[in-house]
């Protein structure tokens, strides 16, 4: 039937290959629906990004995609053209509400109910973040609270937020060390080649790396404030430029290849070392070249309308 054919044509574009913890697909008995994909405002870029709510909306997950060129999947008897591999990992919901709290503080600067702050006409599903079990329980970590009657009112607190983020950074450092992740000079290429420098990574290297990870989940202004709060020294431009090119390349899902022609980087060099002549070149240099034509003369184009001399 036409309807079935239509659904068959649409199905490859509406399915993905997904890696997710079992808690994502575990559906409570009282709930009929399953986990829901939705678009929320990315806390760093403020653009729309894909997230996943559990069936009971108690947990929100971030969705990341690993993409390779010319890659597809075989699913059953069909071929899935979208060759992306989707990763689903739990996300602290406070990262998603932080931009709204900061924005409300800059505009109003007063205590407001959470449901009046966490709202967005472009991304109405953001209200579900308040249903997550950790959201209302942890709001005191980044806000001041007032209780009137049976309602609570909140206002963004910068100092509390920086302390909370510092604890996050310290927890991240512990996780990086336990996992043996290479930081600082130990990361030599996109394949994370380990070297002797891994053991020499300092506490500052780990903290700087953790700050970079957390900066992917907070606005840029807050990232700069956190950098100062962690008392990380600023790296000078001279130090950054002295690093090898392989260390300055950004890691990605695609392999970064070296340039094929390195000579173009030396074309403007002012100092050129003289090359030694071979024995044949020395003999040729002694030949009398008077009366000889240059090699390029044999390939020069002839001018039309002129006659050859007899």
Keyword list:
alpha+beta; 310 residues; 5-stranded mixed β-sheet; 31% helix; N-terminal domain of TfIIb; 9 strands; disordered C terminus
Task: Give me the secondary-structure topology.
Layout: H1 2-10, E1 17-19, H2 22-25, E2 36-41, E3 48-53, E4 60-66, E5 73-75, E6 78-80, E7 85-90, H3 94-107, H4 114-117, H5 133-138, E8 143-148, E9 151-156, H6 158-179, H7 203-214, H8 220-229, H9 237-241, H10 245-248, H11 279-285
Parallel strand pairs: 1-7
Antiparallel strand pairs: 2-3, 3-4, 4-7, 5-6, 8-9
Proportion of residues in extended strands: 5-15%
What name is given to the CATH topology of the largest domain? N-terminal domain of TfIIb
Structural category is alpha+beta
Q: Helix share of residues? A: 25-40%
| Count of DSSP-assigned helices | 11
Q: What is the β-strand count?
A: 9
Shape: extended
Global Rg: 31 Å
Average pLDDT reading:
75
CATH architecture of the largest domain: Single Sheet
Classified by CATH, the class of the largest domain is: Mainly Beta
Distance between the termini: 88 Å
Taken in chain order, the helices and strands follow as HEHEEEEEEHHHEEHHHHHH
Q: Give a short account of the largest sheet.
A: 5 strands, mixed
Any low-confidence stretches, pLDDT <50, length ≥5?
Answer: 1-12, 186-198, 240-272, 305-310
Q: Strand order across the biggest sheet? A: 1-7-4-3-2
Number of domains: 2
Walk me through what this model shows.
The chain has 310 residues and is an alpha+beta fold. The protein has two domains: 14-156, N-terminal domain of TfIIb (Single Sheet), CATH 2.20.25.530; 162-248, no CATH class. Helices cover 31% and strands 15% of the residues. It is built from eleven helices and nine strands. Strands 1-7-4-3-2 form a five-stranded mixed beta sheet, with no helix packed on it. β8 (143-148) and β9 form a beta hairpin.
